[in-house]
Design goal:
- The protein is an alpha+beta fold.
- The protein folds into two domains: 101 residues, no CATH class; 83 residues.
- 52% of the residues lie in helices and 17% in strands.
- It has four helices and six strands, in the order βαβββαββαα.
- The chain has a three-stranded antiparallel β-sheet with strand order 1-3-2.
- A hairpin with a 2-residue loop joins strand 5 and strand 6.
- Helix 3 runs antiparallel to helix 4.
- The termini are far apart.
Length: 195
Protein backbone atom coordinates (compact mmCIF):
# COMPACT_ATOMS: atom_id res chain seq x y z
CA UNK A 1 0.00 0.00 0.00
CA UNK A 2 1.33 3.39 -0.99
CA UNK A 3 1.76 6.17 1.57
CA UNK A 4 1.23 8.92 -1.01
CA UNK A 5 -1.22 11.61 0.02
CA UNK A 6 -1.25 13.53 -3.29
CA UNK A 7 -1.95 12.04 -6.71
CA UNK A 8 -1.82 13.77 -10.08
CA UNK A 9 -3.52 12.45 -13.18
CA UNK A 10 -3.26 13.61 -16.77
CA UNK A 11 -6.65 13.51 -18.44
CA UNK A 12 -7.93 15.87 -21.12
CA UNK A 13 -11.51 17.14 -20.94
CA UNK A 14 -13.10 19.43 -23.50
CA UNK A 15 -15.45 22.05 -22.05
CA UNK A 16 -18.43 20.08 -23.37
CA UNK A 17 -17.26 16.86 -21.65
CA UNK A 18 -18.40 18.05 -18.24
CA UNK A 19 -20.51 14.91 -17.67
CA UNK A 20 -17.46 12.67 -18.31
CA UNK A 21 -15.36 14.92 -16.11
CA UNK A 22 -17.92 14.73 -13.28
CA UNK A 23 -18.04 10.92 -13.53
CA UNK A 24 -14.23 10.70 -13.49
CA UNK A 25 -13.98 12.80 -10.33
CA UNK A 26 -16.71 10.72 -8.63
CA UNK A 27 -14.94 7.47 -9.58
CA UNK A 28 -11.66 8.78 -8.17
CA UNK A 29 -13.40 9.76 -4.92
CA UNK A 30 -14.89 6.26 -4.65
CA UNK A 31 -11.30 4.94 -4.91
CA UNK A 32 -10.17 7.25 -2.07
CA UNK A 33 -8.94 10.29 -4.01
CA UNK A 34 -10.71 13.63 -3.53
CA UNK A 35 -10.26 16.36 -6.13
CA UNK A 36 -8.26 19.32 -4.89
CA UNK A 37 -8.85 22.89 -6.01
CA UNK A 38 -8.07 23.27 -9.74
CA UNK A 39 -5.19 25.68 -10.23
CA UNK A 40 -4.06 27.50 -13.33
CA UNK A 41 -4.48 26.62 -16.97
CA UNK A 42 -2.91 23.16 -16.48
CA UNK A 43 -6.03 21.97 -14.64
CA UNK A 44 -7.57 21.24 -18.05
CA UNK A 45 -5.13 18.34 -18.41
CA UNK A 46 -3.59 17.82 -14.96
CA UNK A 47 -5.84 17.04 -12.01
CA UNK A 48 -4.60 16.88 -8.42
CA UNK A 49 -6.23 14.61 -5.85
CA UNK A 50 -5.60 14.11 -2.14
CA UNK A 51 -5.96 10.84 -0.25
CA UNK A 52 -9.31 10.47 1.52
CA UNK A 53 -11.67 7.81 2.77
CA UNK A 54 -13.46 6.22 -0.18
CA UNK A 55 -16.97 7.67 -0.37
CA UNK A 56 -19.98 7.94 -2.64
CA UNK A 57 -19.51 11.57 -3.69
CA UNK A 58 -21.06 13.28 -6.69
CA UNK A 59 -19.17 16.03 -8.54
CA UNK A 60 -20.97 18.61 -10.67
CA UNK A 61 -19.69 21.35 -12.94
CA UNK A 62 -21.63 24.57 -13.50
CA UNK A 63 -20.99 27.55 -15.73
CA UNK A 64 -21.15 31.21 -14.74
CA UNK A 65 -19.59 33.93 -16.90
CA UNK A 66 -20.72 36.82 -14.67
CA UNK A 67 -17.68 37.68 -12.53
CA UNK A 68 -19.58 40.09 -10.26
CA UNK A 69 -22.09 37.34 -9.44
CA UNK A 70 -19.40 34.81 -8.38
CA UNK A 71 -19.99 34.87 -4.62
CA UNK A 72 -23.79 34.62 -4.84
CA UNK A 73 -23.45 31.83 -7.44
CA UNK A 74 -21.24 29.78 -5.07
CA UNK A 75 -23.44 30.60 -2.04
CA UNK A 76 -26.53 29.34 -3.88
CA UNK A 77 -24.94 25.89 -4.25
CA UNK A 78 -23.54 25.87 -0.72
CA UNK A 79 -27.07 26.58 0.59
CA UNK A 80 -28.15 23.29 -1.02
CA UNK A 81 -25.31 21.32 0.57
CA UNK A 82 -22.73 21.47 -2.22
CA UNK A 83 -19.07 22.00 -1.39
CA UNK A 84 -17.29 24.45 -3.69
CA UNK A 85 -14.00 23.01 -4.99
CA UNK A 86 -12.77 25.69 -7.38
CA UNK A 87 -13.03 27.22 -10.83
CA UNK A 88 -11.34 26.83 -14.15
CA UNK A 89 -12.13 29.78 -16.37
CA UNK A 90 -15.92 30.16 -15.98
CA UNK A 91 -16.59 26.55 -15.01
CA UNK A 92 -17.27 25.91 -11.31
CA UNK A 93 -16.74 22.55 -9.63
CA UNK A 94 -18.86 21.35 -6.69
CA UNK A 95 -19.21 18.07 -4.79
CA UNK A 96 -21.73 16.50 -2.45
CA UNK A 97 -21.93 13.24 -0.49
CA UNK A 98 -24.54 11.08 -2.24
CA UNK A 99 -25.36 8.72 0.65
CA UNK A 100 -28.99 9.03 1.69
CA UNK A 101 -29.67 11.83 -0.80
CA UNK A 102 -32.39 11.66 -3.46
CA UNK A 103 -31.30 11.72 -7.12
CA UNK A 104 -33.06 15.08 -7.57
CA UNK A 105 -30.82 16.60 -4.89
CA UNK A 106 -27.72 15.34 -6.68
CA UNK A 107 -28.28 17.47 -9.75
CA UNK A 108 -27.33 21.14 -9.87
CA UNK A 109 -29.84 21.80 -12.63
CA UNK A 110 -33.41 22.51 -11.56
CA UNK A 111 -34.86 21.54 -14.93
CA UNK A 112 -33.94 20.39 -18.43
CA UNK A 113 -33.88 23.93 -19.79
CA UNK A 114 -31.13 24.99 -17.37
CA UNK A 115 -29.14 21.86 -18.31
CA UNK A 116 -29.52 22.81 -21.97
CA UNK A 117 -28.51 26.37 -21.14
CA UNK A 118 -25.23 25.03 -19.67
CA UNK A 119 -24.50 23.16 -22.92
CA UNK A 120 -25.36 26.29 -24.93
CA UNK A 121 -22.98 28.40 -22.83
CA UNK A 122 -20.18 25.90 -23.49
CA UNK A 123 -20.78 26.43 -27.22
CA UNK A 124 -21.08 30.20 -27.21
CA UNK A 125 -18.15 30.72 -24.81
CA UNK A 126 -15.66 29.51 -27.39
CA UNK A 127 -17.04 31.20 -30.48
CA UNK A 128 -15.38 34.64 -30.03
CA UNK A 129 -11.97 33.05 -29.53
CA UNK A 130 -12.45 30.89 -32.62
CA UNK A 131 -13.40 33.90 -34.72
CA UNK A 132 -10.49 36.00 -33.45
CA UNK A 133 -8.01 33.18 -34.10
CA UNK A 134 -9.39 32.66 -37.59
CA UNK A 135 -9.67 36.24 -38.78
CA UNK A 136 -6.83 37.90 -36.86
CA UNK A 137 -4.17 35.20 -36.88
CA UNK A 138 -4.72 32.28 -39.24
CA UNK A 139 -6.00 34.03 -42.37
CA UNK A 140 -3.58 37.01 -42.24
CA UNK A 141 -0.58 34.79 -41.52
CA UNK A 142 -1.52 32.39 -44.30
CA UNK A 143 -1.94 35.24 -46.79
CA UNK A 144 1.35 36.75 -45.63
CA UNK A 145 3.13 33.44 -46.12
CA UNK A 146 1.96 33.15 -49.72
CA UNK A 147 3.02 36.74 -50.45
CA UNK A 148 6.60 36.02 -49.46
CA UNK A 149 8.93 35.36 -52.37
CA UNK A 150 11.25 33.20 -50.33
CA UNK A 151 9.80 30.92 -47.70
CA UNK A 152 12.01 29.28 -45.14
CA UNK A 153 11.35 26.50 -42.68
CA UNK A 154 10.47 28.97 -39.89
CA UNK A 155 7.60 30.41 -41.96
CA UNK A 156 6.25 26.95 -42.74
CA UNK A 157 6.65 25.84 -39.12
CA UNK A 158 4.72 28.84 -37.84
CA UNK A 159 1.87 28.43 -40.30
CA UNK A 160 1.78 24.70 -39.49
CA UNK A 161 1.45 25.50 -35.78
CA UNK A 162 -1.32 28.01 -36.50
CA UNK A 163 -3.21 25.47 -38.58
CA UNK A 164 -2.85 22.70 -35.97
CA UNK A 165 -3.99 24.96 -33.11
CA UNK A 166 -6.87 26.30 -35.17
CA UNK A 167 -7.91 22.75 -36.15
CA UNK A 168 -7.89 21.67 -32.49
CA UNK A 169 -10.01 24.64 -31.56
CA UNK A 170 -12.46 23.96 -34.39
CA UNK A 171 -12.61 20.31 -33.26
CA UNK A 172 -13.45 21.42 -29.72
CA UNK A 173 -16.05 23.89 -30.93
CA UNK A 174 -17.74 21.31 -33.17
CA UNK A 175 -17.75 18.86 -30.24
CA UNK A 176 -19.39 21.47 -28.01
CA UNK A 177 -22.01 22.19 -30.67
CA UNK A 178 -22.78 18.49 -31.15
CA UNK A 179 -23.00 18.06 -27.37
CA UNK A 180 -25.51 20.90 -27.24
CA UNK A 181 -27.58 19.32 -30.02
CA UNK A 182 -27.47 15.93 -28.24
CA UNK A 183 -28.71 17.48 -24.99
CA UNK A 184 -31.42 19.38 -26.85
CA UNK A 185 -32.59 16.22 -28.66
CA UNK A 186 -32.68 14.27 -25.37
CA UNK A 187 -34.83 16.98 -23.77
CA UNK A 188 -37.17 17.08 -26.78
CA UNK A 189 -37.51 13.27 -26.76
CA UNK A 190 -38.15 13.30 -23.02
CA UNK A 191 -40.81 16.02 -23.50
CA UNK A 192 -42.58 14.15 -26.30
CA UNK A 193 -42.46 10.88 -24.31
CA UNK A 194 -44.20 12.58 -21.38
CA UNK A 195 -47.06 13.83 -23.57
Amino acid sequence: MSDRTIKRTHKWFWNYDYDKQENYYSEMHAKGWALMKPEGKTAVVLQTFEKCEPANVVYKIGYNAVKTDRDSYIKMFEDYGWEFIGTLQNFYCFRKNADGVSPEELDIFSDDESRLDMAKKAVTAGLPILLVCTFCILIPQTLNLFRLTSRNWVDWTLIGMYVVLWALYVWGYIGAFLSYRRHKRQIEEKGSAQK
